[in-house]
Write a structure and sequence with these properties.
- This protein is mainly beta.
- The chain has one domain (5-143).
- The protein contains 1 helix and 11 strands; from the N terminus they run ββββββββαβββ.
- Strands 1, 4, 5, 6, 9 and 11 form a 6-stranded mixed sheet that branches.
- It starts with a strand and ends with a strand.
């Protein structure tokens, strides 16, 4: 499995997003990026579904994650969620780290399932969470298909 290239389905859940702001998943590099809206939303959570390619292993043994949603150096991959105002106007970006996704998690994924991680949509002062946001406990986990 570590030599094969395959797509890995992920879901990123944003808990407690700031009302009145929009969030979108960044696909592609800055300047050429497109913004992908949430696959599901409510006032309490937003869920973004995406796939990343797993293409073999890194020199340290971890999975090599690739694809249009993946950014950063190979050992520190992440996904961007762009925070903006309705009608335009960028507020900033959330950087969601993919580092907790390991071979054990990938190999245990049930057919039709996804690996899900949840982040807080607000900072300690109640504003939008920006910059690097940690995956909330229990970390990356399986969800049924």
């Amino acid at each position: 499995m570590h030599d094969d290239r395959f797509d890995l389905p992920l879901r990123i859940v944003v808990a407690g997003p700031v009302a009145g702001l929009t969030l979108a998943l960044q696909r592609g590099a800055s300047g050429k990026a497109t913004l992908v809206p949430a696959a599901a939303s409510s006032p309490e959570v937003l869920a973004f579904d995406l796939e990343v390619a797993v293409d073999g292993a890194l020199p340290g043994g971890g999975p090599r994650l690739l694809g249009p949603f993946v950014h950063g150096p190979p050992q520190e991959r992440f996904v961007y969620l762009c925070v903006g105002r309705p009608g335009g106007g960028r507020v900033g970006r959330m950087k969601v780290p993919l580092g907790g996704i390991d071979w054990g998690l990938i190999e245990g994924l049930p057919p039709g399932g996804r690996i899900e991680g949840c982040v807080a949509g607000r900072n300690a002062k109640g504003g939008p969470a920006l910059a690097t946001v940690p995956i909330l406990p229990p970390g990356w986990a399986y969800i049924p298909g």
